[in-house]
Amino acid sequence: MKRQIKLLFFLLVAGCFSCAHGEEEKSRGWTLLMVGLHSDFQLPSLKAADQINVYGLRLSLLGSKCHNFAGLDMGFGANAIDGQGYGAQLGLGNGAKSFTGIQLGLIGNGSHNLSGVQLGLLINQSTTMKGLQLGFINHSDQTTGIQAGFYNWGRSDGFLLQIGFINNARPGDLTIQLGIFNTIVRGGGIMGGSKYNSSRPLLNIDF
To answer: Model-level pTM greater than 0.70?
Structure first.
């Protein structure tokens, strides 16, 4: 009975996801499970990976690849999503064109558009981020949320809180920096090399 309920749940997720993406998704296949040793040796195969969506579970040893994804993505290598991802990614490194959920990477995480959380031991990178980045280095071009680490770089798109040893941000909306070196980069170098930059230790606020 429990297996039937789980299967029904995944089918509903797949159906909703497919409808949300219109005609383009109708041409793609999908699977509840993807397994493999590497993106060159996985089931479904790499040849079909860019044309298949995974709604459920993906397990890989050194990494894997698919188009869209919804569910739990686990691997000891690099987990790649060419399209949109929803759920959780756990691996050495995680990447997606667009991701909603949590990315937990031993080395780091990358996403063009992120809504959620990036936890990376070394680096977290996104073009647009809404949520939390927690790692040694955090980078986001358009940020709504919190960056916490040794070095943070961002631009506030609504609200940005940076907590770290070195905080750098481009002028935008409300920005609060808590750290040893805090700089709003209006021009010149990132460490306050221009008279147009705003540098204050401990606490820096810009809006």
So the answer is: yes
Tokens of 84: 């949109």
CA of 40: how far to CAs of 46, 65, 187, in Å?
6, 9, 45
Span 174-185, pLDDT tens digits: 999 999 999 998
CB contact set of 40 (below 8 Å; sequence gap of 6+):
46
How many residues are present in the chain?
207
Provide the 8-state DSSP code for 106.
E
Phi, psi at 3, each rounded to 5°: -65, -40
Say how far apart CA 63 and CA 204 lie, in whole Å: 41
Cα–Cα dist 155/170, whole Å? 5
Residue 109 has which token pair? 């995480």
What is d(CA 198, CA 187) in angstroms, rounded to the nearest whole number?
Answer: 10
Amino acid present at 193: G
The residues, any chain, with a CB within 8 Å of residue 49's CB and separated by 6 or more, are 39, 42, 64, 65, 66, 67
For residues 80 and 144, what is the distance between their CA atoms, to the nearest angstrom? 24
